[in-house]
Amino acid sequence: MKPLVLALNPSIDAEWRVARVLPSEKNEVLSERRWPGGKGVNVARWLKHLGRKANLLLPLGGPAGQELSRQLRAEELPAWVIRTRIPTRVNVIVTPEVGTQYRFNPVWHKLSPAQWIELASAIEPRIAAASRLVLSGSMPRGVPVLTYAQLVRKASDQGIEVILDCDGSAFAAAVKAHPFLVKPNEHELASWVGYELGSEMEIVRAAQELSRRTRGWVLVSRGALGGLLVNREQGRVLSAVAPKARVLNTVGAGDALLAAAVDRIEAGAPPEEWLRAGIATGTAATACQGGHLPSRAALTKLLTQVQVRNL
């Protein structure tokens, strides 16, 4: 059995390289690269790169959907494609030679109730054949906010652990269905608890409260600061600092972190290894150009640099 990654909001990621960004002026695009994107697609690509077989389930439509389908086939990434009349997004990443990277993500067209029913009917039969269910990314407009919560319950009723990475109201609803592991970043965790988080211990307490609600694991990604892995019922609080790396890109780093954690969970490794592998792989992602995946040697080197400690 393989993990099933559900990517309801896939995209083509298009990076525009520019010398600099000038407000109110013509900005010349020096080059463009395009690759498969969206959080769930990123997770599936990283799982394959890590040597973990997984199935990807995603809706695709329009010219960008056809392009994304071709890219997945070229990468030999196993995918169940649900054809939809809603066109797939193209996210634009503007990267200047020096300075801040900008991201522009189009909002999905709204799905009709009939379109959602058609999509949902294709999802549910696939869950029973999965070793684990990974729900990653936002949902298209028109998809009921309780969708992830319902999928968590359906999978859990069949003894299938669910790993969740989303935000907002869909996250708040799904938390109550008790997923096995959730992966907020600091901002998403602060949004869930309803107040700003400062020190590491404030983040730990918020993660412990989230773990109390989910009854499971909370993996908090903290960017260059590393991450935390918390389970309140088991009394576990693990911390790891990210190794130093030259940051070339931040798109998809959290998805790389999550994929590595899923890979180690699938391998039956202890929680310390979920966090260690996640931090190393997330760091490796930032050291690559967007859409590129690092060498095994680079991953191995970073893995040796990550130390996990108990708090």
Structure commentary:
It is built from 10 helices and 14 strands. The chain has 311 residues and is α/β, with parallel strands linked by helices. Strands 5-4-1-8-9-10-11-12-13-14 form a 10-stranded mixed sheet, with helices on both faces. Strand 8 (130-136), helix 4 (147-157) and strand 9 form a beta-alpha-beta unit. Helix 4 (147-157) runs parallel beside helix 5 (168-175), helix 8 (253-266) packs antiparallel against helix 9 and helix 9 (271-286) crosses helix 10. The model has no long low-confidence stretch (mean pLDDT 93).
Mean of pLDDT: 93
What best-fitting shape do the alpha-carbon axes yield? Answer: globular
DSSP strand content: 15-25%
Total strands: the figure is 14
Level-2 CATH architecture:
3-Layer(aba) Sandwich
Give unreliable regions as ranges. none
Distance between the termini: 35 Å
Query: What is the name of the CATH topology?
Result: UDP-N-acetylmuramoyl-L-alanine:D-glutamate ligase
CATH class: Alpha Beta
What is the share of helical residues? Answer: 25-40%
* Count of runs of 4 or more consecutive helical residues: 10
Radius of gyration: 19 Å
Major beta sheet summary:
10 strands, mixed
CATH superfamily: Ribokinase
Overall SS class: alpha/beta
Please, how many domains?
Answer: 1
Strand order of the largest sheet: 5-4-1-8-9-10-11-12-13-14
Secondary-structure element sequence?
Answer: EEEHEHEEEHEHEHEHHEEEHHHE
